[in-house]
Design goal:
This protein is mainly beta. Strands 2-1-5-6-7-4-3 form a 7-stranded antiparallel sheet. β1 and β2 form a beta hairpin.
Length: 87
C-alpha cells in the first residue's frame, strides 16, 4: 500500500492511496520508475510517494492520461543520487 500527497488541481492538500503495480517499470525514455495505481493529478508532481511506515519511496512525476491506474514516480534512490551529485 502506498500514498501520494500533493495539491491536486490546486484544491489544497490531497492524499490518495493505492498499490505499487511495478517497482521497476522501464518506460520509453529508458528510465526506471515505480508504477502505482494511486490517483495522481496535476499538482501532485514532485510530491512524495510513501509507504505505510511513512517512508518516502519515490517522487511523483507522471501519469498516463488516457489510462487509469498507470501513474509513475522516480524511485527515491535515484532522487537522492541526483541531489548528492548536484549539491
Amino acid at each position: 500500500k502506498v500514498f501520494a500527497i500533493g495539491n491536486s488541481l490546486g484544491q489544497g492538500t490531497c492524499i490518495t492511496t493505492g498499490i505499487v503495480s511495478d517497482k521497476a517499470r522501464v518506460l520509453h525514455d529508458g528510465k526506471t520508475y515505480i508504477m502505482t495505481d494511486c490517483a495522481i493529478n496535476a499538482g501532485n508532481s514532485g510530491g512524495p510517494l510513501f509507504n505505510e511506515n511513512g517512508e518516502v519511496i519515490g517522487s511523483v512525476v507522471a501519469g498516463i492520461t488516457n489510462a487509469e491506474g498507470m501513474n509513475f514516480a522516480i524511485p527515491c534512490g535515484i532522487v537522492q543520487n541526483f541531489i548528492e551529485r548536484n549539491n
